[in-house]
Amino acid sequence: MHHKKNYKSMLIYIPVILILGFGIGPFLAALVTSFLPVGTFVTVENPFESISNFSMVNYSELFTEYHFPTWFINSTIVSVVSTLISIFCSCLAGYSLSRFKVAGRRSAEMMLLISQMMPVAAIIIPLYVIISRFALTNTLISLILVNNAITIPFSTMMMRSFFDSIPRELEDAALTDGCTPLMVLRYITLPLVRPGLFATAIFAFTLCWQEFLFAVTFNTSDTLRTLTTGMASVKERNMVNWGILSAAVVVATIPVAILFALVQKQFVHGLTKGALKG
Q1: pLDDT confidence bin for 277, thresholds 50/70/90
Q2: Contacts of 62 (CB under 8 A, 6+ apart)
Q3: At the top level of CATH, which class does the domain 67-234+252-274 belong to?
Q4: Fewer CB within 10 Å, N- or C-terminus of the chain?
Q5: What pTM did the predictor assign?
Q6: Which residues face 236 on adjacent strands?
Q7: Cα separation of 157 and 170, whole Å?
């Protein structure tokens, strides 16, 4: 029996190890490549000889020869502002869909779901026409607006599921004591769905941080590039410098990794809480 349990444990861990390998493997490859000088590769025959050539030259060139600090700041501004707007709007919209039985509620929910089914390529031309009419091309405001066009419907549906998991009796008691609906949301409901807020914020931030198509379409100025479009422009003599590009990937991954590490418990709790109804 003991051997059978060991075999079952091995069968469970094998898929987990494979998934981790596929997920972490590319990042580890980029991490190693970022420390290798141009023309140096890790060989199977003698890997330690290449590793002995590790240096910080790619990171130095990334920050001195490219506008990488500017790209990083632009991505941070766009992602943080977009996330804050998305959370604010999705909290109000999700709470309304969850608690108020008004005409057109089902139609609004259906429209939100349909908007998530549409590919970005199908809406990028109408969005570009609108942005151009308001003379917002080559501005960070345009990226904030179009990012929220994607994140708000998604975040609204997430927040609605979190609000559905909160018993209505708690809010009814607060309303009986004289609280307004906004006071109930602020002091009763939001503290209870705090893990859901963290989960929704991380999803929204990640979507904005890694967004490429909108950034490359609406902004063409090098000083207004985000990390994704900036890394796509890392070339030398029409050839990709894989060392510098890998260094950019490593640095761009650090903020998201730190964010997940800081709110990991709230994130997992928020996901599981949204799947349950009280």
Answers
A1: very low
A2: 68, 244, 247, 248, 251
A3: mainly alpha
A4: N
A5: 0.81
A6: 239
A7: 22
